[in-house]
Amino acid sequence: MRLANVKSIAAAAGRLFRIPDDNPDLMRAQFKAFVKQVPLLYFILVTNSLAVCFTFAPLAPAWQSVAIPVALSAFCVVRMVWWLQQGDVPRSDEEVLRYLRLTNRLGVVLAASFVCWGLSLYPYGDAFAKGQVAFYVALTVIGCIFCLMHLRSAALGVTLVVNVPYVVFFFLQGEPTLKAVAINHALVSAAMITVLFIYYRDFADLVASRKTLIAKQAETQALSDENFHLANRDALTELPNRRRFFADLHGAFTAAETAGTRLAVGIIDLDGFKPVNDTYGHTVGDRVLIEAGRRIAEACAGFCACRVLLARLGGDEFGLVICGDPTEDDLLALGRAIGDPVRLPYQLDGAHAAISCSIGFALYPSAADTEEALYECADYALYHAKRHQRGHAVIFSAEHEAQIRSRGIIEHLLQAADLGAEMSLAFQPIVDAATERTEAFEVLARWNNPKLGPVSPGDFIPAAERVGLIGSLTQVLLEKALAAVKTWPDHIRMSFNLSAQDICSPDGVLQLIATVHGSGVPPRRIDFEITETAVAFDFAQAQQAVTALKTIGCGVSLDDFGTGYSSLSHVHCLPLDKIKIDRSFVADINDNAVSNKIVKSLASLCADMDLTCVAEGVETREQLDSLRRLGCDLIQGYYFAKPMPADAVAGYLAREAQKSALAAAAAHGAIV
Predict the structure, then answer these.
(1) More reliable by pLDDT, 294 or 140
(2) Per-residue DSSP letters for 550-574?
(3) What value does the mean pLDDT take over residues 372-377?
(4) Tens digit of pLDDT for each residue in 211-224?
(5) What is the 3-state secondary structure (H, E, C) of 490-550?
(6) Is 156 exposed, middle or buried (0-12, 13-18, 19+ CB in 10 A)?
(7) Is residue 66 within a helix (H) or strand (E), and if so which, with residue range?
């Protein structure tokens, strides 16, 4: 049992004098502290030892009073210089451990050497010299212990090696005063050892807590980096998002402004994406967006003329910041580099989808002098591209700037207009292709503003949509149109155009139904025309609106078929009555074989689906004959009549009736 106790005590003592090699952070902290403190330790040893050397040089032999302290001091100076050079030297964990262990051993050896030398001089001195030896050993060891407190094993070793001989030596001198000094020193040493243990424990805890703090800081920084990544990255396409786009734009604009170089902003919109999304579902739509984003990113990365920063702004829109002093030719080349791969087919679970992209560019400083205005100019260039050059890139120009000013004036005056007084209607006949008798009139809006004069519907209808007046405008025009219909013969129908906002708003549809019921006009005499773009805007709501209008007895026509986004599945799912073939196919029907085939296909589609086929934009007899031959049912265009005011409709119908009567009489006479 006693042997076991002795072994456990020995093991505990061994741990006190051993440098733990399983805590690299603690070892590095000790080494870092020693770089600053060990040179001070050697300075204390050298200065104190040389002071004793000076006192005993005339009293003791030279080898003992001078040679030994000079040799020890020289060694200390060398070690002090070495430690001073370690501040900027990178060390491995193994090297740090090796140097700390060396410090342990050197500390014990030097402590023993200096204390033996000091006590060996004691007999040679007088009372004052002997007192200096006592103070030399006591004060020097205290200074050294403080310098070694970060390495407990070294501090304990020096304390024991110096203080045990010191206390024993002076206690055995027999002098009561010296015995008191020895006992006092022993008590102070015990207190210092206690302080040493407490300080070392706190130092080790501080290192551990610092390690924990660093780990938490690293975790916090990683979390912050991840949050930054999430906040600036689009989750679907993994491209930079809208926030990052405007941050990049701000930085690039500031740099271009400072350097006096050009900078461009581009906005990309995918043409035909919404029908793909509605037809195949959001999962397929997301795949198309991801693939389109990848193709655009590759095109931007491979564009050598300029540095291009790409981001997804939201939905099917992407943003570009083009740095590096781009020219207009560079922007058009970039537009082609992006547009060509985007137009390639997309493989979608056994089906193919085809989309394109329109791009609006604005160039600093020619287009705008602020980053916000530059973005707005690019947005307007995109708007112009989608309306007039779909699938191509458009660069903002002075002409567009004039259009913006004009658009702003129109919007302002439209908001201040008396719609009931300033709005009027024109009516264009829709004629039976076989009998050439009028079946209906299409209602066309006209605005005559006191300041601007006549304003084109192509300008004020989009303006009404932008400023939120389209609902009020539709209400005013529909009431005027229904009032006109009541003056027509009962067999004449009315065809009235609705905007995307009219049919995609449940409240708007309810207002339409209420207006029809309140007019006294039978719903069977009313056809509502909707565009392919309106259907694509929100197909589900458009389907509900068409069903509601059909339920009360109104007819529904799909206008401008072939120019928008509708797919055959949309035509199949909507309860339509008529399809109107766009005038662009009619204009060159006799000169363009492709247009002829398209009209023929659409007429056959209408016949197969039991829909009435209406061709608009007919201006010549040759066009009329071709459309009849291809199977179109109704015809509309200048060949029969231009749009006319409401008070001219009765006269037009009377002349038509008279013409028909004369034709019938002539035919009857020919038969007789």
Answers:
(1) 294
(2) HHTT-EEEEEEETSSS--HHHHHHS
(3) 91
(4) 676 667 777 676 66
(5) CCCEEEEECCHHHHCCHHHHHHHHHHHHHHCCCHHHEEEEEEHHHHHHCHHHHHHHHHHHH
(6) buried
(7) none
Contact 313, 319 (CB under 8 A): yes
Closest alpha carbon to 323 in 263, 373, 374: 263
With residue 471 as reference, give the H or E element that holds it. Answer: helix 470-485
Predicted pLDDT of residue 21: 55
Q: Is 368 helix (H, G, I), strand (E, B) or coil?
A: coil
- Provide the token pair at 434: 């076989």
pLDDT at 134 over 90: no
pLDDT at residue number 572: 74
Does residue 68 surpass a pLDDT of 50?
A: yes
CB 422 within 8 A of CB 448: yes
Check if the beta carbon of residue 305 is closer than 8 Å to that of residue 334. Answer: yes
Alpha helices in 57-175 (DSSP H): 62, 68-84, 93-121, 127-147, 152-171
Q: What does the radius of gyration of the chain's CA atoms come to, in whole angstroms?
A: 48
Q: What's the half-sphere exposure (Cβ side, CA atoms, 13 Å) at 137?
A: 34
Q: How far, in Å, CA of 406 to CA of 438, rounded?
A: 38
User: Count of CB atoms within 10 A of residue 314's CB?
Assistant: 12
Give the other-Cβ count within 10 Å of 500's Cβ: 19
Q: CA angle, corner 400, sides to 397 and 404, nearest 5?
A: 140
pLDDT surpassing 70 at residue 44:
yes
In a 13 Å sphere around the CA of 344, the CA atoms on its Cβ side amount to 11
> What's the token pair of residue 217?
């800081």
- Mean of the per-residue pLDDT values for the chain? 84
Model confidence at 159, in pLDDT bands (50, 70, 90)?
Answer: confident
Position 11 pLDDT exceeds 50: no
Rounded distance between C-alpha atoms, residue 355 and residue 340, angstroms: 11
- Of 341, 377, 386, 321, the closest CA to residue 359 belongs to 386
Residue scoring higher pLDDT (571 or 605): 605
Please provide residue 272's backbone torsions phi and psi, each rounded to the nearest 5 degrees: 90, 5
pLDDT for 664: 65
Residue 63 is given by DSSP the state: I
Q: Within 13 Å, how many C-alpha atoms sit on residue 142's CB side? A: 13
Report the alpha-carbon distance of residue 586 to residue 243 in Å, rounded: 47
Q: Is the pLDDT of residue 337 over 90?
A: yes
Token pair belonging to 603: 């007429």
For 91, residues 6+ apart whose C-beta sits below 8 A from its C-beta are 31, 99
Buried b (16+ CB within 10 A) or exposed e, 440-462: bbbbbbbbebeeeeebeeebbbb
